[in-house]
């Protein structure tokens, strides 16, 4: 299942440009609510992965402002 970035934000109930903390919070909240529904759980995880990958690419290219709460460290990118 492939999701567009816009659809991924819709799945998590977020607007485009949400912060990493907002994305992670929405993912965790939705996963708690859908216990036992494996299909919904997979959709939420795919949405999270889609957004995370997009934000990581933007960060690595210098096109995303990173919060001071995010620690610097080595990043391995397997795409």
Given the helix and strand composition, which structural class is it? mainly alpha
In terms of DSSP E residues, the strand content is under 5%
Radius of gyration (Å): 13 Å
Distance between the termini: 17 Å
**Low-confidence parts:** none
Largest sheet: none
Q: Say how many strands there are.
A: 0
Spell out the helices and strands N to C. HHH
* Percentage of residues assigned to helices: 55-70%
Q: What is the molecular shape?
A: globular
Give the number of helices.
Answer: 3
Q: What's the mean pLDDT score?
A: 86
Assembly type of the shown chains?
single chain
Describe what you observe in this structure:
- The structure is a single chain.
- It contains 3 helices and no strands.
- The mean pLDDT is 86.
- With 79 residues, the protein is mainly α.
- It is globular.
């Amino acid at each position: 299942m492939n999701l567009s970035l816009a659809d991924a934000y819709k799945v998590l109930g977020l607007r485009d440009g949400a912060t990493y903390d907002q994305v992670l919070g929405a993912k965790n909240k939705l996963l708690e609510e859908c216990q036992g529904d494996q299909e919904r759980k997979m959709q939420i995880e795919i949405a999270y992965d889609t957004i995370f990958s997009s934000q990581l690419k933007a960060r690595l290219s210098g096109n995303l402002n990173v919060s001071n709460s995010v620690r610097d460290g080595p990043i391995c990118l397997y795409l």
